Amino acid sequence: MPEYKINKYVSVYKRAIELYNEGSFKEAANFLDLVVKNDESNYNAAYYLGNLYYNGHGVNKDLKRAFDLYMKAATRRVTEAEYMVGLCYLKGEGVKQELFQAVAWFTEAAKYAHPLSQYYLGVAYMNGEGITKDVPRAAQWLVHAANQGIVEAQRDAGKCYEILGNFHGAATLFLAGAKNGDAESQFRLSGYYSEGKGITQSTPLAVFYLEESAKQNYAPAQVALGRRYDMGNGVAKDPRHALELYQTAAKAGNPEAENALAESYHSGEGIIHDNTLAVQWWTKAAEDGNIDAMIHLAEILTDPSDKTVMVDLVTAKSWWTKAAEAGDAYAMFRLGDCLENGIGVSNVNLDDAFKWYRLAAQNGYKDAEEACARFSKSFTGKVKLKKV
User: pTM for this one?
Assistant: First the structure.
């Protein structure tokens, strides 16, 4: 008769998992370590022990040890381990960050319908990280994950559908994410209801989802809701409440909120008029990249009628330059004016003035066309003003 060997580590593993599920991690780690060392066929034990080292449960946290254990299990097609190997490569935890390796392992786990692997794979295709950007394929993987309840996938699949021009599909996905409490989905869905894009137009629902998003301190929603209260758009006009929303979002470092708060100080809506504070907040917003703030700041610094702010043509010109370089057509025109008339610069530069006027005209600013008409070029190609 054939001789059968009894694997005594099967019962050890079973007890280890019981302890693991009870939260008795130290004892579980001891048992799992025994199984990993003595039963080469039990790859699930390596995965669970990897989890303990990854999270520092019952053992000292050791990401390198965790990665090695995950890899041992992943090479034997333990799906959860394949996902964790991908995550380690994505974050550079326990191993050098390698995005293409992360994508490869997420792909393996995604084949077996692992929801988070599908999500991360979709994000990789969406952003072109570790793989060639492919929005349609990103949408496919994200929808798979969304259908399994991954809220972030519902939101990001909606973004993909939006890029692809499928606004009804985007609205449906944002609605799913919004109902599951995702603040960005609520914010985006509000815009769809407001415009009636991909969904029946409804101002009350637009306001409702904006309120829900703002309650979660999602700064873009707080700013958008503040704008509604400022203008009385779909809500009773309430500049003071708008100001509170701007202040909350501005303190969180949102550039659009910083700009809106500066506008409130400048106009005196809902607050005492204070151009000094307006300039401070416009400066903060401009430094944080808000183009509207750059323009507001440049204009107030060139306004001699406002005695509360010192005229500073050099600083104004620098903000016109930054806004122009960021692609704003009006700023391009104003920069051309600075260079043509020597505003905030040491020397007039007609060549650069004409360049910026022409760019402003090409970007749709009508007054720039008239400005361009004042210039001509000599046979050498040098720009000069036409004689009147």
Answer: 0.87
